[in-house]
Amino acid sequence: MQHTHEGNIGNRCNDHISDNMNKIVAAFAVDAYHSAIDQVQLVGRLLHLWHRSLCHSFVRSVRESSFVNGD
Where are the domains of the chain? Predict the structure, then answer.
């Protein structure tokens, strides 16, 4: 017995179903999604650099302070 399932994602059977599927896929804002991800990653990198800079400044100021030097 041979069985086929018509109209699923892998077997869209006719142009109407295929056109509707293409419209749905085209409606996804993939470019906007990727742009947002890129922006989030950039903000993360900038925050990391800012944090490193802040920590280095703090350590430098502590090392240079009279409290650490015993003055």
Answer: 29-69
pTM for the whole structure? 0.48
How confident is the model over 1-53, as pLDDT tens digits?
Answer: 565 556 566 666 678 777 888 888 888 888 888 999 999 999 999 999 999 99
**Can you tell me the distance from the alpha carbon of 39 to that of 29, in angstroms, rounded to the nearest whole number?**
15
The full length of the chain comes to 71
Residue 64: left (phi > 0), alpha (psi -120 to 50), or beta?
alpha
CA distance 26 to 20: 10
DSSP H helical segments within 3-71, as ranges? 15-27, 30-64, 66-69
